């Protein structure tokens, strides 16, 4: 079973007048990138959430948003003097350093400063009343992450079915290519005999054996049996990755490069219209597979 890097989960809760909403979603990425947007004053929730995600997820750009409200939060905003002082000090330090280095600095407005995290706060319930909330949020994290993983698994199942079907198409095309080899060999032999006769007629005193050896060498260089054998081996490996339990996205991505390499070589060595057509069909299916593999964890 493979997992998709695309997934979504949400959860809600209520305790002692607090209400909250979790929003958890992910898209594909080269590695694991976790981005959290949590309210201030929820000590320990971020660490617990990051740990739970890293235990269950190997790749993906994961975004988590938590919104918490309480009836005692009267909606009036207040300035946090400590955060405001820190923000201004940092901005001044940046401005001074930039000017020393000859960089132009765009003036910062009060509105810009107000948007910095923690400078403006909503009047909230006191810290003691938040302790049970924090514990409730931590207790909810495992089920939230499990739901998220299940969503990625469902997406992965759909991806697996698509990729399995595409691997089957590749196998059919490889079979078609193999079925053309005898006909291609006969056509090549006829072409080589014609070429040999043309050379012998045009060149007086030509060594017939030598010319035949050169033409035979050309035939060897255009042989595609190795490419077809490797494609069959790649098919076997691809199927094993699609049924493995561990994250297989990187392995499949590398395998797609190998598939594409063999298909390109097949096309370049084909020298037979029907075999070229099969090679181009192979390249088309492999390109479709590569697009799907980009979403595999």
Characteristic terms for this protein:
297 residues, alpha+beta, four-stranded mixed β-sheet, two-stranded antiparallel ribbon
Low-confidence stretches: none
Describe the biggest sheet? 4 strands, mixed
Determine the mean pLDDT: 88
Terminal Cα span: 11 Å
Element-by-element helix/strand order: EEEHEEHHEHHHHH
Discrete helix count: 8
Number of E-type strands: 6
Describe the strand arrangement of the main beta sheet, using strand numbers.
1-2-4-3
Classify the beta-strand content into a percent band: 5-15%
What Rg is obtained from the alpha carbons, in whole angstroms? 32 Å
Characterize the overall form: elongated
Sheet/helix structural class: alpha+beta
**Helix content percent band:** 55-70%
In short:
63% of the residues lie in helices and 14% in strands.
Describe the fold and architecture:
- With 297 residues, the chain is an alpha+beta fold.
- α4 (127-202) runs antiparallel to α8, α6 runs antiparallel to α7 (249-269) and α7 (249-269) runs antiparallel to α8 (273-293).
- It starts with 6 loop residues before the first strand and ends with a helix.
- A 4-stranded mixed beta sheet has the order 1-2-4-3, with helices on one face. A two-stranded antiparallel ribbon has the order 5-6.
- The chain is built from 8 helices and 6 strands; from the N terminus they run βββαββααβααααα.
């Amino acid at each position: 079973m493979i997992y998709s890097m695309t997934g979504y989960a949400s959860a809600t809760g209520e305790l002692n007048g607090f209400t909250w909403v979790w929003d958890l979603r992910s898209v594909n990425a080269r590695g694991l990138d976790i981005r959290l947007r949590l309210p201030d004053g929820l000590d320990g929730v971020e660490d617990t959430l990051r740990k739970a995600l890293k235990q269950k997820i190997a790749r993906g750009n994961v975004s988590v948003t938590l919104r918490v409200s309480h009836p005692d939060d009267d909606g009036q905003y207040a300035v946090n003097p400590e955060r405001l002082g820190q923000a201004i000090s940092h901005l001044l330090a940046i401005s001074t350093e930039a000017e020393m280095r000859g960089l132009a600095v765009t003036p910062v407005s009060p509105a810009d400063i107000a948007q910095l995290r923690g400078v403006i706060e909503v009047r909230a319930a006191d810290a003691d009343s938040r302790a049970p909330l924090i514990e409730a949020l931590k207790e909810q994290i495992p089920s939230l992450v499990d739901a998220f993983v299940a969503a990625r698994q469902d997406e992965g199942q759909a991806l697996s079915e698509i990729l399995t079907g595409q691997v089957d198409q590749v196998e059919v095309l490889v079979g078609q290519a193999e079925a053309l080899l005898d006909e291609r060999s006969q056509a090549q032999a006829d072409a080589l005999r014609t070429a040999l006769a043309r050379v012998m007629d045009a060149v007086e005193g030509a060594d017939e054996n030598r010319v035949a050896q050169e033409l035979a060498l050309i035939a060897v260089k255009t042989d595609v049996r190795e490419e077809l054998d490797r494609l069959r081996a790649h098919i076997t490996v691809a199927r094993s990755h699609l049924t493995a339990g561990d994250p297989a996205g990187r392995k499949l991505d590398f395998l797609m490069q190998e598939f594409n390499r063999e298909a390109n070589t097949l096309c370049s060595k084909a020298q037979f219209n029907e075999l070229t057509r099969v090679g181009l069909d192979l390249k088309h299916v492999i390109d479709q597979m590569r697009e799907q593999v980009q979403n595999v964890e």
